[in-house]
Amino acid sequence: MPIMVVLRTGLIALLSLFAVLAARGAMAQEAPHPQISLTGEASATASPDMAILTSGVVTQAKTAAEALDQNSDAMEKVIDAMKKAGVEDRDLQTSGFTVEPVYSGSNASSSGAPQAPKIEAYRVRNMLTVRVRDLGALGGILDKSVSLGSNQISGVAFDIENKDALLDKARKEAVADAMHRAEILSAAAGTRLGRVLSINENSSYQPPRPMMLREASMAAGKSVPMEAGELALSVTVSVTWELVQ
Predict the structure, then answer these.
(1) Highest CATH level, class, for 32-47+162-208+230-245
(2) Dist CA 184 CA 42 (whole Å)
(3) Whole-model pTM?
(4) CATH of 50-159 among 3.30.43.10, 3.30.70.2970, 3.30.420.40, 2.40.110.10
(5) CA nearest neighbour of 205 among 2, 59, 85, 44
(6) Which helix (H) or strand (E) holds 62?
(7) DSSP label of 114
(8) pLDDT of residue 163
(9) What pLDDT score was predicted for residue 170?
(10) Which of 52, 56, 33, 20 is nearest to 215 (CA)?
(11) Angle (deg, nearest 10), helices 138-147 and 64-84
(12) How far apart are CA 184 and CA 24, in angstroms?
């Protein structure tokens, strides 16, 4: 075998050995350090500063045009009253509109033979979602809208317009809670916290629930009492630290 071929083969074998040793050394250096993962929780509460009202007008007449005209007249009055009460245009939004036939209740003739459904009237429903930023005016707005023709109110929900500040407060407290627990456990194990390896957040906010209103109270023209209460925003964080001996 030529000398050059032998030298080349030996050099390749030597380089391969160095590569294997270097890879093993890198794997030894990258061996994971002990870690600790803890979860912290916190919540922030605040009083609502606005209400979300879903109100509508439902009309029924022999023809679709007649039902639509009646509905439009009543809804225009409701919207005008909302604006006069201080509700801005940006806080008024049509959230549903339907025109549907109303069929007769019986599909059988006097002889008992089946008959095709018969349209007796037409029903128009126009729903309006309203944000009321002045909670003190909420009861009056409800009373006025009902008196002007709003005969379907799905409910009232309370909300907080700016949640960012509350969430930031809860985030800080949740991280502090996780760190406090981790420090206790790591000290008990004879170690201490090193660098943070990961942080994950899970924020939860229970959306406002509509509060149903009793139709009897509204029909009687009574003032609608409202209690806003408090809303809570919760934050959960999972933090992983490296443990240092």
Answers:
(1) alpha beta
(2) 18
(3) 0.63
(4) 3.30.70.2970
(5) 44
(6) none
(7) B
(8) 87
(9) 93
(10) 56
(11) 150
(12) 36
